[in-house]
Input
Amino acid sequence: MLEGAHDGNAFRITALHPARNLSSRPDRFEIDPADHLKAQKTARASCHAIIGCYHSHPHGAARPSATDLAGAEQDNFLWLIVSDRELNAFVYRDGVFRGCMTGAD
Ligand SMILES: [Zn+2]
Output
């Protein structure tokens, strides 16, 4: 998870919080709730918040999958997705992901 703050479309990441993946499937992730809670408490102690998440698509493209879309809940949440070739950033808002490396709305 990504700790930090955001103002409009500007995100400032101040810390990374790795989390265990509880999914038994290699192509899915399910963040350990205990790791999520710990990251939230740590962020709050620094007057920050969890503003995003990061994960890899080792066998796919560095863009949100249908599963990512189905699991996305929080608006204005930053998603960093890395493949074996690139790293891309997206913001989830109003039910869709918007790429923020390309400047696209
Ligand atoms: Zn994904």
Strands lie at 2-7, 10-16, 49-56, 77-82, 87-93, 96-99. The chain has a mean pLDDT of 90. The pocket of zinc ion is lined by residues 55, 57, 65, 68, 81 (CB under 6 Å). The chain has one domain: 2-99.
